Amino acid sequence: MKPALQSASGQAKAAIAPAAKTLAPAAKDPVAQTSSKAPAVRASGAPTTLNLTNTQNVVFGNPRLSGDASATKLVFELPVGATYALVPTFGGLRIDVGGARVVAAAATNLAPQLSEYRAGGGQVTLGTPYPLSLTDGWRASETTVAGGGRVLIVELGPGLRGGAAASVRGRVLAAAPLSAEAQQSLLPPPNAQETAQQGGLPPGDSVRPSPGVLTPAPPAPLPGTDVARPSDLVGKVPGTLSAGATVTPPRLGKNPGMTRLVLDLPPGTSYRIVPNALGLRVELLGVGLEGIKAAAQDVSPEVRAWRYEPTAQGVNLTIVTGAPTTARSGWRGLLLPPVEGGERSRLALDLSPALANLTPMQPRDRLIASVPPIPATRGTAILALATTYVKPRIVLDAGHGGKDPGAVGSVVEKEVTLAVAQRVRDLLVPAGVDVVMTRDSDRALHPDKNTDLTMRAQLGTPGTQLFVSIHVNAMAATSAMKGYGVETWWNPNHTLSYDFAATLQRDMVRLTGAFDRGVKGYHSLAVLRNSRIPAALVEIGFTSHPVDGQNLLDQNYLDRVAVGIASGIRAALIGGLTAAGPQPSAPVASGK
Fold this sequence. Notes:
The protein has 592 residues and is α+β, with helices and mostly antiparallel strands. It has helices spanning 180-185, 413-428, 449-457, 497-512, 526-529, 548-553, 555-575; strands at residues 59-60, 64-67, 72-78, 83-89, 92-98, 101-102, 105-111, 114-120, 123-127, 136-144, 150-161, 163-164, 171-172, 234-236, 251-255, 258-265, 270-276, 279-285, 295-297, 305-310, 314-320, 331-336, 345-351, 374-375, 389-390, 393-398, 434-437, 464-473, 486-489, 516-520, 535-542. It has seven helices and 31 strands.
């Protein structure tokens, strides 16, 4: 009898079958388990004659495997009455099976072009180390064998072309009908500064030290400034305003990642600061503009231009930064007393797109509203005879750990990611969410990096709704000034991954005021592509940037990041951006 898995040399290899020694059994969902006394399932785990779906005696799986270094071939027997759909994805080929029970199995690194085989719950996933399109990277065909049975033949290889042949009777589906925004996020921007990804690692992981190049030091704060307190939007210089008082050109100070403008204001001058989408407007009341330089262009990386303009009430100073500012982000301001011997007070304005909101959150703003339970029968307890409700389950992945520190700069990545993940967990659990942590201490899941990433992704077991991986970004010292802000990554592993990533990004930016780097999908990331549920990876700031790194050191900022992530997760659960999709409301107790 031919083995279920055979190498190109003809020697028997690990079989894709429950009896294979090298195969781990499919992950068991504790919610779906019955006690040892329950009659529905034998102690061995084999189904009894109880038949709820009319498919338990018809099975799909246990393919035969052959091939070489360039291509891998799998042959599946097609039971009579079984249907299937082929879904090429960013991380491999998914086979959705109907009319037959899929034999549960799991294995990794079976062949050069088959990085993972995972089966169960009506699906077979053939993981590949490269992305598939509708026609590239794979071929499929059907044929009749001796005895009249039919088989499905799947070939995988980066050089293969053709997709599904005309003989295929199953459907071929696009992995994710993408919106225009999602399609755009899959395209790398021109002159992208990100380091090319290696082995599916998160963006900052490919950064290597630059010999002889030092990371810029953080700029000195304004004397007496309190970053936990919002800068005043209105103010008045002490003293009495003299008739004919005029302004002088702003004085300029340049620091890595930040520019400081200092306005020397006459006594009695009132001012109002107006943040906007293009920078700041400073309205100076009661002063005039005479015989001075009134504008400048290309001032610094943070200040594209400034200009004075006379108004009926005084003078307006427009500062063009090229990035949005808000009442609490993008700038800091402080009115300082005159220098010794002078009479003009100094309005100092620090400008940087990396300046985030570091003010503390009120306890009421840290509360996450409750999340209703979901039916356990939707992917968590398929043998249940009556609908029961369970807490929605999500996975939080604190990046790195153990001997893998991640990015190191102003902070150590593994420490910050764990601190944020714990905060998110503590926000979601009281809201009724079942949170699974990939790690809750300083450890890795496996010493091999690729295996570690795969193990993290596979914690999204059946019944899990969402997967979030938390990371800190970095750039090489030679380009460190170009990396700041938050971004969220996705891969087309699931039809809802982009929408989930966009929801997380929206709420993180809203809560932190951090620079919005957007939603990105043009790198294949192992921890995302190996997940079978909506998944996203958040990069919460750059440890390599002199200003953004200070955000990551601030506990108020980390609190805001955590609330943003938790808020995005709740919005996704409520809005149906989950593995189970939109859910009906749980029944309300009558009180009898």
